[in-house]
Design brief:
With about 350 residues, the protein is an alpha+beta fold. About 30% of the residues lie in helices and about 25% in strands. It starts with about 30 loop residues before the first strand and ends with a helix.
Amino acid sequence: MIIKDIAKQQIPVIGNVLPFKKNNIIPIKINKTIEIVIVPNLGEVNSHQDNVGIILEEKKVLRILSKRYKNVSITEINSVEDLEKLVKRKPDLVFSGVKYFFFNNKNIWLNDYLEMFEIPYIASNKTALDNESNKNRAKKLMQKAKIKTADFFITNPGEYLDETLIPIKFPLFIKPVTGGDSRGVDKNSIVFNFESFAAKVLDIKIKQNSPSLVETYLSGKEYSVGIFEDSINGSLRAMPIEIIVKKNVDGHSILDFDVKKNDEEKVILVTDTKIFKKLSKLAKDSFKALGGKSLGRIDIKMNHRGVPHFIEANLMPGLRKGYFYRSCVLNLDMSYEDMIFSIANTGLSSH
């Protein structure tokens, strides 16, 4: 297989990764310009930023991409002028985890801005990211596409005054409508009665400033499926993994904020062929329904009968120790370098 950009050089590509010789011959670099775009974080190191979907280890990414491409640099955007200079330089690829900038009292979405100037980028555009980040919208898109997802409704404190008015049966699972990384999810997210329901809805409103998404509780196994778009033909590759969480004091396995933050869950390869195929199909269909591009992650949970259901998605998945990277490692035996090369190659080839 030959990447079209380097076909004249006749350098073979195996699994999107260029082989480098060990006999002191300097590898031929591809004549492409890549800018790694970041924004300053005024808070603590690696603290959450609403406008950043992927926290990049930019210096590490720079070292990796510089092995294959001639011109790779890090660009920090601090103003509209910086953004205008970026598009004037017209790099071959912008490698970035930034969603949007807030300049002159308005949001400028990076990937949509780049599209106007026909500059390739990684990950998805604003429409897809909006579809993913709003769990209410995401689940409605799944229903429209005939993709299984738990029954649900959206509520705020005080909307339902007694149990008889709640539209779906207990037990229920409650989480914020917006936000990622399981923020707002804890041991109280599974509710079995009206008092617990009302308390959790109020808690989410106070602490997360969000309405609650209330859905039928799915008691089966939990999975995450990494998605890679092929750089040559645009087909999707699914990489399922199973997430195992220890039971809490109430006997429930909940992938909550603290479990993720403290890396307490165990991740294993899905070895059952039938389950692998079911998860892969649901994840690919979900990715398409959301309008995803390049890469992403689809979270899935089984019901008590072992039927997979869409839970939520992340179209800007973390590239460090997160589920996306681990899905690459377990399914493709892919190193961190290989993953970065593949993401860049897909971005370059997709435009």
